[in-house]
What does this fold into?
Amino acid sequence: MSDAPSEAPPDVPDDLRYASSHEWARLEDGVVTVGVTDFAQQALGDVVFVELPELDSQVQSGVEAGVVESVKAASDIYSPVSGTVVAVNETLEDAPESVNEDPYGDGWFFKVEPDDPEELDELLDADGYTETCESEDGDH
Amino acid sequence: MTTQGSARTPLYDAHVAAGARLTHFAGYSMPLHYGSQLAEHRLVRVGAGMFDVSHMAVTDLAGDGARDFLARVMSNDPHKARPGRAVYTMLLNESGGVVDDVIVYGRDNGYRVVSNAATREKVRAWFDRHAASFQVALRERRDLALLAVQGPQALEIFAATQGVDVAALAPFTSLEHAGSLYARTGYTGEDGLEVILPGEQAVQLWDRLRASGVSPAGLAARDTLRVEAGLMLYGQDMDDATTPLESALGWTVAWDPPSRAFLGREALARQRAAKAARVLKGIVLTAKRIMRPGCVVQTGAGEGEITSGIFSPTLGFSIGFARIPRNAAGDCRVVIRGNPLPGRIVKLPFVRRGKQVFE
It folds into this structure.
């Protein structure tokens, strides 16, 4: 089975940075919050389990830091930046549907204190990420 | 692959209007879900949902030899297909493998067979080949639509909306009225109906049911509902190379009378005497992961493989079917993305009428 491109175009907020593997990153007060994008949650379908990195663990940019299991498939979550995990969203344990309902808000995954905040500059901006999504939609 | 060029059922526009995410399935553009397959699944367990299954193949059988033809090609007892009765059966090949699983509806003047969409051409050719020796006329009915209305409230809402006394139907019986066939059958483990009606009336029925509180549900919810109910899917849980005895479908084989020479009988009788080495059983996973088809299952009696695996919305964990060595029982491990995770072998089904039934 293959899915047709979905109805509503995915939401790509201008104030975030993006990894081509469909995570978003928001820098606030020296800490980077990480989640998956609206495009990703639409493609995944209903999310049912989320496995997060451990608090105080080290994550590496582009290396898997967790797993999101949806009705459709299991997918690795990559950290967009390297650093130390300073918070994880424990509410996803009981409410994994937050990832679908509010991917840029309540559906956040973890927070990283980056080793090098300038690493964020290497990520895509909203326009660059939108292009990535459009080219993936065309692959169907 | 895109949905461009796919066939459309009479309800295609209704699906698009309801916000369906469409998928290409068996040559048709079909609704996968309308936003959340979990929500659709739950609605069918507590209320009423409807599935467009018009992609399935409907074949009418007529003629003096129709019953003898069925006695030759169906594994189940053809006498159960009296007028107004429905029978679930396998069609078997000479090796006892499953050509397709179908429902045969007995009618006043013949029979109606509903078979899978993905096997349409194969079954047509197979029917034609075996029908040649019987006085039977086969007619494929692409003019008809199929709507499954399922859930604890399905019969009540349907009767009130359509003025057809479907609540009086016993399970696996049907009635015909004004060109439509109403059967108390389904693929969800809930009470409900399957309606076979003229294609041009499908939109009106859909709209009326929607207005009465029946929610559209897609193929994704249909799949998770049928796994919870312990119902097999052709091409995934059984196929041309596996027999009913290897697929938890032995109950669909009518061995009496011994004189009935149905296709595949000899091969199946040999396997029955020797006992099938591998059988299909239920698996539940305790880890917070989801089993998928193809996952290896490690048991004390040897390895097997998941044929269907889902997240169960009713139970909150992953369940599935696995073809495993006959003597396997108790605890097992399911290999998911390289990790052997703890699971348990259980008796089917998992859920009946909205409640867990295995121990």
